Sequence to fold (337 residues):
Amino acid sequence: MNKTRVGVVGAGYWGPKLIRNFHDLPTASVAMVCDVRSDRLDHIRRLYPDTTTTQNFDDLLASDLDAIAIATPVASHYPLARAALLAGKHVLVEKPLTTNSADAQSLIDLAKEQHRILMVGHTFEYNPAVQMLKDIIKSGKVGDIYYINATRVNLGIFQQDINVLWDLAPHDLSILLYILEQDPTAVSARGAAYVQPGIHDVAYMTVNFPNNVMAGIQVSWLDPCKIRRITVVGSQKMVVYDDLEPEEKIKIYDKGVDKPPYSDTFEQFRLSYRYGEVTSPRVPPDEPLHLECAHFIDCIREGKQPRSSGEVGLKIVRILEKAQNSLLNGGQREKLW
Fold:
């Protein structure tokens, strides 16, 4: 069986993780790695002596690579992905797909014209705990969803080219769209830039979905505690997904508020509070990025549409654009479509 030959551009923070996971797949090989820093390429050659390294991205375009994975600063995503698609390569781009929706749509159109796969690295869509959360919601155990709260905060890593919304919120937005299987209708955001002038490091986003479902997202580079948690509150049960929990990543709470079936007087109207069991189903320990990389290779080999497709990436960018507008306009609510 011929292996799918992958090239990776960007060997800084995230790139080596992609390289490791593609290297470990029986159906793929990491044939080339590109980075502007020679010391990073030296490191990669020590780990993977059979992999060709280069500081020239054109070398990847001119090669016999089947696919290119892009793990570079956000502003470079569009030109690199466009060049790769024009060279006939399948493309995996780290989140967010681009810095604006026009560029994202352009890449989607180009991938279709070239008959190539365009996939976005929304890794949490491949997280077994997120898949379990989606399955629990879909089963109806939660009942009608009231609201969702997502918190993604820690101290750092401060970015200089994008604000905290564009850096951290794509994770939670992709999770929300995936588990709810719905597109939001409106978004608003407020925040502040405390450390770097003009670059927000703290933000609060409200995302409105159909059926009066509201989601709140808190993101920050300026928090003493690292928190990665999503709470889903429904009419029947509540579910907490804590990505930092080593064992019990999903907890289902049989808690809620029950209204009386009818009441003729105020005295008859009494809310009852339910405090039931807390259960924690076992979550498979598979590495999400490994599953993501395997899915990308499967899509190439089988010609199928990726789960985190270019279209999904476009939706995330569109939401971020509108959230950015709201952030700069005093938190005004922005319609999305």
